[in-house]
Amino acid sequence: MTAPRTYKYNSELAPKGFPREFDAHIYFDDATRSFAASLREKALSVFQGQQVFTGELIPDAVGPHTQPMFEINFPRPLFTDVVLWLVRERGDLSVLVHQLTGDDHYDHTQAALWMGPQVALNYAAL
Fold it and tell me: DSSP string spanning 69-96?
């Protein structure tokens, strides 16, 4: 029997009507978890009061994501601000940014923008 998860996905946490036009998935492992947690806290602070939603650390593989991660969701007008911030602040963490078009396979393949090494995704889960 699988243990119940102790975290929520951004889709469950974001305020109703939040403009989730883009996802940034920030991946970590045991060795980089502390850095990822501090990066998440920094994102919460830097983007406070803006239409940027930073989710919880997700310690498990979920959906197509084969590594632990956390997400940052944002609308198109903040794309440059969020992506350039991630370029500067991500350290050695890999980041996948994609638009939310409603076509998960397209979003995670042809529309994928990677920072750092690509993380293997489970495309069968899409």
Answer: EEEEEE-GGGHHHHHHHHHHH-TT--EE
For residues 124 and 22, give the distance between their C-alpha atoms in angstroms, rounded to a whole number: 22
Q: How far apart are CA 74 and CA 24, in angstroms?
A: 8
Token pair belonging to 64:
């197509």
The span from the CA of 27 to the CA of 36, in Å, is 8
- pTM: predicted TM-score of the whole model, two decimal places: 0.91
Tokens representing residue 107 in the block = 């979003």
Q: How far apart are CA 104 and CA 66, in angstroms?
A: 15
> Residue length, the chain?
126
Per-residue pLDDT of the chain (126 residues; tens, 9 = 90+): 566 777 777 778 888 888 889 999 999 999 999 999 999 999 999 999 999 999 999 999 999 999 999 999 999 999 999 999 999 999 999 999 999 999 999 999 999 999 999 999 999 988
Q: Name the strand (E) or helix (H) holding 98.
A: strand 95-99
Block residue for tokens 């495309």: 123
